[in-house]
Amino acid sequence: MVKTGENKSKLSLTILYDRLRWEEKALAEEAQRIGVNVNMVDAKTTPLELVGNGLTKEPFGDVVLERCMSHIRGLYYAAILEKEKVVINSFNVTLVTSNKLLTTLALDKAGVPTPRTAAAFSLESAIEQADRMGYPLVIKPVIGSWGKMVACVRDKREAEALFEIREMIHEPLQQVYYLQEYIQRPPRDLRAIVVGDRILTSIYRYQPEGDWRTNIARGGYAELAKLDKEQEDIILKAAKAVGEGVMGVDAMESDRGLLVHEINGCVEFKGAASVSTVNIPKAIAEYALEKVRR
Amino acid sequence: MKTTCEVCSGAIEVPNDAIKGEIVSCPDCGTEYEVIEVKEGGVSLKPAEEVGEDWGE
User: Fold this and answer.
1) Contact criterion met (CB < 8 Å) for B56 and A148
2) CB-side exposure of A151: number of CA atoms within 13 Å?
3) pLDDT level of residue A4 (50, 70, 90 thresholds)
């Protein structure tokens, strides 16, 4: 299905992966249909020279779609590849979108409505801040996805218990307490897939029975969403706030209007594709190629 | 294409259109494998890398 690039005159697109998902296969197929050379590079087995004679043994194309599931791996690849290639998403976009705290700062700086959020860097100060914000309260790891380790604490006792457990995880990022107000919302959130300055499609993700988190990775299900002009403007402003690229903007319908709470830089779109009439992988591939056609 | 799980010896059915890098899992014990190579109707697998804390969208 996917052949290494043969025809030198054609543009070439590389999909950089560490685990091949439906999305990566769909992107490769659509890029091939567009008629460019496509190759897949396994980030797990491809060393890169930062300083030396030539970036890598693998042929990277004119544009690289960076699709690593490991955020840190993808981030460093983008940093290195950008020496010679156009990488989507770029190092800067990946740096912000892979970190919820940096994303919140970027959103707030751009005036995008986002939930009240705080950071603390020790157990005591996290408890103190949680008390100040009140309960229920949501705590999330600054790097992570699929709702992993996202918890909602209903009172001080639960906060203390959970924060003590995190204290025992001797991993620097776990000592960053990212605390966010709990938003009263319908049993769904909104995911908009944005490419450049365009919303490709938007879906509601309904939380599965018995879970308050809406991640499709946790069993939530998708339904097409129709945004009004105000909501579209908020979504596009959010995408712009973290830099241009391909991303999933996540928001919640609150009594204060739409609040953007997260942006995913290596967006999974199988759920959206199952309900949307838009050919998402094709639009992403075309967007990437457009970057090197100019 | 058929192959055997290293962990529980279960039979793993790998789709014919599987490509390098793709993930398949043993239906019996759930162990995940990554496709290394597909050649002449045969497939070779290796245990898939474990999901990391920084993995996600």
Assistant:
1) yes
2) 14
3) very low
Instruction: Identify the closest residue of chain A to B17 by CA–CA distance.
Output: A1
| A57 residue type, one letter | K
* Residue B38 resides in a domain: yes
CB atoms within 10 A of CB A198: 11
* pLDDT at position A3: 46
Nearest to A70 among B23, B34, B54 (CB): B54
Domains of chain A with CATH codes = 2-96 (3.40.50.20), 117-181 (3.30.1490.20), 184-284 (3.30.470.20)
List the single residue in B34, B54, B57 with the smallest CB-CB distance to A72. Answer: B54
Domain with B6 in it: what CATH number? 2.20.28
Query: Which residues of chain B fall below pLDDT 50?
Result: none
Total count of domains within chain B: 1
Give the residue from A3, A15, A16, A20 with the most B CB atoms within 10 Å of its CB, the best one to mutate.
Answer: A20
Average pLDDT over residues A89-99: 97
pLDDT exceeds cutoff 70 at A19: yes
Q: Counting beta carbons within 10 angstroms of the beta carbon of residue A111, is it exposed (0 to 12), middle (13 to 18) or buried (19 or more)?
A: exposed
Q: Is residue B57 included in any domain, yes or no?
A: no
Domain, as residue range, for B8:
2-47
Name chain A contacts of B18, Cβ cutoff 8 Å.
none
What is the residue-averaged pLDDT of chain B?
89
To the nearest whole angstrom, how far is the Cα of A192 from the nearest Cα of chain B?
A: 13
Q: Alpha carbon of A107 to those of A72, A110, A230, A240: distances in Å?
A: 21, 5, 16, 9
**How far does Cα A183 stand from its chain's mean position?**
21
Provide the token pair at A182. Answer: 């709990």
Note the pLDDT of residue A8: 57
